[in-house]
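Re: the request from the purification team.
They wanted to know what the chain is likely to look like in 3D before they choose a buffer screen. I agreed to run a prediction and write the result into the notebook, where they can find it.
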Amino acid sequence: MKGLFKSKPRTPVDIVKITRELLVYLDSPVRDAKREEKMAELAKNIREMKSVLYGNGDAEPVPEACAQLTQEFFKDNTLRLFIVCLPKLNLEARKDATQVVANLQRQQVQSRLIACDYLESNKDLMDILVLGYENTDIALHYGSMLRECIRHQIIARYVLESENMKRFFTYIQLPNFDIASDAAATFKELLTRHKATVADFLNKNYDWFFAEYNSKLLESENYITRRQAVKLLGDVLLDRSNVSVMMRYVSSKDNLRIMMNLLRESSKNIQIEAFHVFKVFVANQNKPPEIVSILIANRSKLLRFFSDFKTDKEDAQFDQDKAQVVKEIAALEPKEQP
């Protein structure tokens, strides 16, 4: 007779509903005797959600089950509860919850990314995720969630245009290496993923953004910060979507001074990345007179420097670029100041 009373397997919708109820309980100030038991049940439910979305060792995820789970998850404020309650979960449950949130950003229901629709109406959640970099316990989990959420262009635009964007210049230099690296990865994603949105942001916010970028990152005392910053600067400026930003950047004598200082670094890696930006100053056919003056004043030093400047491995493109830079600098003639 026992077999007649086996519990019915829970559906994805059931799992989400029970998880939501447990998160609501966790978010409340109630402290009762069953708290530990409920925390364990919550961790088990989050693990089950992860199994539905990712599959397990024996089975691939079932698209229909994933769609049902996704639809139920975004029907209510389950994502908000996941984010707000994350600090109260144990480490394993935090990892599972982070993977669930990441996966749900890519799940389509009837050809729609319903995570994007939900986030568009709840953009304040991005502020919570960004500020997570200030909490050592949850910084990496929130950072991972944030990078998945900014896969949606409208959400990336919100973060770029928010006041919190300025905080990244501090987070990238936090003393905790793992958190600083995670913040740098998110910063890079924000500045490279959605080309048109990034170009619009940089054009509108050019002055404050590059003032911060130059002083806090390119002139940082931290070697890793300088190295990452000059590499990212090259990637951003040399992207064809950012031509107008590039032209503005390479028309500034202060920016040229920073690049020339980076060329003098003892690190070959920084020198190489700085060269990729410096060559644009030289290649610009409409150099302002003050740029021409600085290059002429430093011509002999630059030509001497480039005569010994080599990459560790053979690089035909680098050699070609260097030869062109040397040719341009050698041929410079003073320009009349307007």
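For the purification team: The first strand starts at residue 108 and ends at 109.
Please add any questions underneath this entry.
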